[in-house]
Structure to design on (406 residues):
């Protein structure tokens, strides 16, 4: 910490632990009951959140608390040592078992001593854990849209569950809104593309997407994500002026199959941002390609590439025939590579919802026995015979003789 802190006396800690809780976004610590508590409560660091990790071994007992600092200088995540002197209580001062807090995923206010490490996350010693009588959730992500009424659509990851999440957040009139430096900003300063960490709940409307009210947000106003349409995929062909890309549309729009015109105005970089030339655009390369909203109504659609990020890995191309095999099954197909009598070079392809399948005109997306295909698959493959790998792109070619057609 940058500022010195006094250590609370045991009696003061117990007094704080017995205090009633307030709404989590408006109050940093429990309401004090005397002048001494007021003075000391202001200097005791604390974090409000949930226990996201617990370790109990020969080195000691430790919890990781993830949430938000009760003051701007406090930690949003910290590892705390639980000692025999650590008080674990509810809002009425009644002792609570640590296991029940972890099992029930309770929100706590964790107060700790001022001596913490400079590691990430910081480490310290827990003085008091106060179990809260309310719950909340949190999301880390990007503001995709700001509506006319000031609500924000956030797409990202649930802070505690780790799963992809999407939610419309209505800002409480008294919401605490901080920038990346923990300085207060106005709701009108929030723009689409900014990254955000927002705490909301406990009530969540079961709509699509879900909706809730937030009264505590930390917004990065310096960085605005690129919300332009794009395709994350593989270069399947290239000429002097254009590339063809097949993959998955970006979160903010795009298409799975596009021809991109590349010229001097196209920004080409690697994953670290280093500038590259058009020579880096090679067939089988994985790329993220960004382009405008205007696209020629051809097949595939055609447009100008504004920016291309070239990734280090390359897909592997294979051609052959989908063949009936007992080794195939749900979510898998057997590819007779080369459409010959040899089996040592054949592969089994995992087909997932991320696999892009381009069928013949008028056909459905099902891969059938006898289909001739061109496949782009992951360079990672099992050492079994045949090898098993993930199919990225499957293109059905006109030269096929499917069982269905027979």
């Amino acid at each position: 910490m940058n500022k010195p802190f006094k250590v609370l006396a045991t009696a003061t800690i117990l007094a704080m632990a017995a205090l009633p809780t307030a709404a989590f976004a408006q109050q940093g610590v429990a309401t004090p009951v005397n002048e001494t508590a007021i003075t000391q409560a202001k200097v005791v660091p604390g974090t409000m959140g949930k226990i996201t990790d617990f370790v109990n071994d020969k080195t000691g007992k430790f919890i990781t608390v993830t949430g938000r600092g009760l003051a701007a200088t406090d930690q949003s995540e910290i590892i705390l040592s639980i000692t025999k002197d650590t008080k674990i209580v509810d809002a009425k001062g009644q002792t609570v078992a640590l296991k029940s807090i972890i099992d029930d995923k309770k929100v706590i206010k964790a107060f700790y001593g001022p001596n913490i490490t400079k590691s990430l996350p910081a480490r310290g010693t827990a003085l008091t854990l106060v179990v809260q009588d309310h719950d909340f959730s949190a999301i880390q992500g990007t503001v995709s849209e700001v509506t006319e009424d000031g609500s924000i659509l956030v797409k990202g990851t649930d802070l505690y569950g780790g799963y992809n999440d999407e939610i419309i957040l209505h800002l409480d009139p008294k919401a605490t809104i901080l920038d990346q430096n923990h300085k207060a900003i106005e709701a009108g300063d929030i723009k689409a593309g900014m990254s955000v960490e927002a705490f909301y709940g406990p009530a969540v409307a079961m709509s699509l997407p879900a909706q809730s009210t937030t009264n505590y947000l930390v917004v990065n106003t310096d960085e605005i994500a690129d919300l332009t349409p794009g395709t994350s995929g593989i270069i399947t062909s290239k000429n002097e002026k254009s590339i063809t890309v097949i993959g998955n549309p970006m979160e903010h729009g795009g298409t799975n199959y596009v021809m991109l015109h590349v010229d001097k105005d196209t920004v080409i970089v690697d994953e670290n941002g280093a500038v590259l030339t058009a020579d880096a655009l090679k067939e089988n390369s994985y790329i993220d390609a960004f382009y405008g909203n205007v696209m020629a109504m051809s097949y595939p659609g055609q447009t100008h590439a504004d920016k291309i990020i070239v990734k280090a890995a390359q897909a592997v191309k294979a051609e052959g025939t989908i063949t009936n095999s007992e080794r195939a099954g749900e979510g898998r197909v057997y590819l007779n590579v080369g459409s010959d009598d040899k089996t040592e070079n054949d592969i089994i392809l995992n087909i997932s919802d991320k696999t892009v399948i381009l069928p013949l005109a008028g056909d459905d997306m099902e891969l059938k026995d006898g289909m001739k295909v061109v496949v782009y698959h992951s360079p990672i493959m099992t050492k079994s015979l045949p090898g098993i790998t993930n199919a990225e792109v499957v293109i059905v070619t006109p030269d096929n003789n499917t069982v269905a057609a027979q």
